[in-house]
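Run log, item B.
One chain of 206 residues. Sequence copied directly from the ordering sheet:
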Amino acid sequence: MQEQYRTVARAGVHETEINRSRFICALAPVATEEEAQEFIARIRKEHPTATHNCFAYVIGADASVQKAGDDGEPGGTAGAPMLQMLMRREVRYTAAVVTRYYGGVKLGAGGLIRAYGGVVGETLDAVGTLTRQRFRVATVTVDHQRAGRLENDLRATGRAVRDVRYAEAVTIEIGLPDSEVPAFRAWLADTTAGTATLELGGEAFA
């Protein structure tokens, strides 16, 4: 299981011109293959008169889903170099669409590969990337008397407090890397004099 992965920091668009052809790359973070396909369809709708709308996407922290399409460009000259650039930059959960408006000058196979891969790389530089870390969702239950101080202590020690709910007792949901669970249990028992409970939930990335 991957402990972390890199993805695009935000959706973004970058354009470059090569031998009078316009290459417009749109990048977006996507959680599923369906989201990637919806993004590709939306970009195609935005550029109905473009010569080509080529795509590539990578889904999964371990890059388990990789797809690319040339949309009429010679086989392997568009989608494949776009996908290779995403993989080379180790970017996951990301979809890329490169829209080309043909400018009248043929680029040849090598030129196309450089153009499609290159504009994806330039767009990644422009929008930036961020790293998401795998963690376990953990719920701390504590009495009202200790809750305020415990929440402050959690934030002060850099814990990701995701949610706080007040009922008969107070539940504080945090993100906790697996490797830190034993040490956190000991810290929690010490801080709350053994009155708080810790329940481990599912895994997520943040």
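Observations after the first pass:
- The chain has five helices and ten strands.
- The first strand starts at residue 4 and ends at 8.
Flagged for discussion on Thursday.
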